[in-house]
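Table S2 (continued). Query chain:
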Amino acid sequence: MASTTTTTPSRRNRSFARGFTLVEVLIATSLSAIVMVGVLTSTLMIARNGYLLNNYIDMEKQARTALETIAVDARVTKSVSWQRASDTSPLTGIILTDPDGVAITYAYSSTAGTLTRTEGTKSRVLITGIQSLTFSAYKYADATGIELITPSATTLTALNGVTKMLQISLSSVRTRTTVVNATNNVVSARYVLRNKVQTN
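Corresponding output:
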């Protein structure tokens, strides 16, 4: 008669074969959740910072291109014609006439938040998202040298005649619901109207 032998696993082998306990599973799940939250938070912050950086780059590019264009037109202009809504309103635009007699208009729209350049029938928006924009006119004075002109105290005809330099300062913004606003403040140099004769 054949005999059978039953082998009982040792206690050591049984300890290696057992699974995770509920406590171990809960701890592992909690740690995984913490790591995932950290990764998602970091990803979100990187995405937001990247979006803000793109906004700043875009605003800087627009402002730099616009100011360089205005500088070229201002330095060759032979006459200027300022624009404003009324005698007490701030300046909202300027018409520069080049040596060939071509009028180039720079107009600021507070409603649209844009600065537009128009030459003949061609118009191009130079800057968007403008919150505020100020045109400043300067003249040469014998006593004080360079002098800022107060537009509200000067008629447009007189202002056009005495203007020898102009300057632009503006504040632009980019907005988005999930990201803080990106704001860019720009003050141009004083552009000397080299070809224009100042009339006192």
